[in-house]
Amino acid sequence: MIKERLASNIGRRDEEPNIDLAKEIIQNQDVQSIKELVALLKSKQNEVQNDCIKVLYEVGEMSPNLIVEHYPEFLEVLKSKNNRLQWGAMTALKTISLLIPADIYNNISTLKLVVDQGSVITRDNFVAILVNLIDQPAYEAQVFDLLLNQIQDCPTNQLPMYVEMAANKITKDKILPFRQVVISRMNEVEKISKIKRLEKVLKKLS
After folding, report:
1. What was the pLDDT predicted at 117?
2. Half-sphere exposure of 174 (CA within 13 A, CB side)
3. CB atoms within 10 A of CB 6
4. Are 140 and 134 in contact (CB under 8 A)?
5. Residues 166 and 198 sit within 8 Å (Cβ to Cβ)
6. What is the pLDDT of residues 95-110, one digit of tens each?
């Protein structure tokens, strides 16, 4: 039974058992264990939920095809009051966003609502999803606007990372508005190292 393999069930506080389990599932292409883990996301034990989502998004990072069919369950989990489960679900959705861009985009308003109420890690993965989707011609304009909004409104601590993540995906016609938003926030950034990171991107896009 897959539950018995989870870190919390063997008295471990670290993630190594969960990571090892993910690797084993990938090696065996074990779709049955994936189904069991998804079912356990509804467990009433937070520790079990947390372990399961960890295993699932670790699988997604290395073999997204194994979890992609379960995206509706990940969307449902986003509504959880368990913060670890919520940002874990956003991480899982990030890992499969390139496989099902239409399904992810069709639920983008749900994702954005969660981000507005969620943690920094939830936002980090939402921005990564936007960066993944911006290559899709059908969604490019809308996704670019959402990405600019995140860069405009994100905490200054996250700003350089988001700008760097987006920079390689900015097409020539989008450089000017992108630069304007970044420049508009420069005076909020206090750390010299972060300012230099932003300046490097601006120079690259000049």
Report:
1. 85
2. 17
3. 23
4. yes
5. no
6. 999 999 999 999 999 9
pLDDT tens-digit profile of 115-154?
988 899 999 999 999 999 999 999 999 999 999 999 999 9
The closest alpha carbon to 140, from 117, 158, 119, 166, belongs to: 166
Torsion sign across C-alpha atoms 164, 168, 172, 174 = negative
Token pair of 114, please?
A: 């969660």
Amino acid present at 182: V
Read off the tokens for 113: 């609502």
Among residues 52, 44, 46, 42, the alpha carbon closest in space to that of 4 is found at 52
What is the identity of the amino acid at 73? E
In order, the DSSP letters of 10-73 are GT--SSHHHHHHHHHHHHHT-HHHHHHHHHHTT-S-HHHHHHHHHHHHHHHHH-GGGTGGGHHH
Contact 104, 112 (CB under 8 A): no
* pLDDT tens-digit map of 43-55: 999 999 999 999 9
**CA 158 to CA 151: how far, in whole Å?**
9
**What is the rounded average pLDDT of the residues 191-206?**
95
- 72, two tokens: 């509706």
Q: Give the pTM.
A: 0.94
